[in-house]
Amino acid sequence: MDVDIKGNSEKRRGASLAFPASVLVLMIMIVPILMLFRYSFNHFDASMMVEGFTLDNYVKFFQDSYYRDVFFSTVYVAATCTVLSLVLGFPVAYFLAKTQSRYKSLFIILLVFPLMVGNVVRAAGWMVILGNAGFVNFIAQKLGLVDAPMQIMYTPLAVIIGTTGVVLPYLILTLQSVLEGIDFSVEEAAQSLGASFFTAFRRVVLPIAAPGVAAGTLLVFILCMNAYATPVLLGGTGITMMAPALYDQITKAANWPFGATLALVLVVATLLMALFSNWLIHRRYVKTMVS
Q: In angstroms, rounded to a whole number, what is the distance separating the alpha carbons of residues 255 and 270?
């Protein structure tokens, strides 16, 4: 009884400590979204916003093929970057979680180091690597793989490469923290019973790591859907994504109502797709654990 009372008091104390910060974060997030929601129903007359109530902005978004293409391009890039990050990041996180090397801290520092550099600087680095006179084209021409420089910059491929490079450390760090909590003796037991490495990994490690995969992919997908600097610098006019499109509407065209509409569509679509994928992964996780 005393243990239960002590546990409940600790929970209430923890909740009371987290309450002010939670309220502040909710206000910072919800108030601007509510303002954008109200702006999205206003009119845009010439160069100014007029108070009113209309659905023209939403009708324009769903009927205009240009903005539909922008939205689907954003979803395509975000989904591709998320899958690539998972494929490339899981082996690294698995290695970091299992390794007993004395250089483990150095590996983690090297992983975190890119996060200390701004997205603009990293995008500039990719511009040097992927440009017509960049490192990739230089190596490809030296090896005789191509006769003329490949056009990589200002294409969806460049945006996917650059965005994946930005979000990959986030996924690796998230997965590593989850994998380190796994008792890998279970994997060894499966292998001792005749399972191959890949079978043990697929049937034992991967289902246990499913919550971490869900959290990591959720974070990465949201970051990719809202990417701005990398698509602008690496994509140029070759691809337009939602964040640059709504930025142009608000800052260049001064069309706050339509810019607010784009922002709300982006926020709602991102949350719905992220929650659906999270639910799907957890559903598969529960089914696997039960079976």
A: 22
Cβ within 8 Å of residue 197, ≥6 positions away: 191
Least confident span in 5-14, 41-50, 129-138:
5-14
- The model's pTM: 0.84
Report the DSSP beta bridge partners of residue 45.
48
- The closest alpha carbon to 119, from 83, 164, 86, belongs to 164
Instruction: Tell me how far apart the alpha carbons of residues 166 and 226 are, in angstroms, rounded to a whole number.
Output: 12
What is the Cα–Cα distance from 193 to 237, expressed in whole angstroms?
A: 56
Asked if 205 contacts 187 with a C-beta cutoff of 8 angstroms, the reply is yes
Structure tokens at 194: 């005749």
pLDDT digit string, tens, across residues 210-222: 878 888 888 899 9
The answer to whether 210 and 204 are in contact (CB under 8 A) is: no
Burial class (CB in 10 A: 0-12, 13-18, 19+), 260: buried
| DSSP-derived secondary structure for 168-223 | HHHHHHHHHHHHTTS-THHHHHHHHTT--HHHHIIIIIHHHTHHHHHHHHHHHHHH
Q: Which amino acid is at 186?
A: V
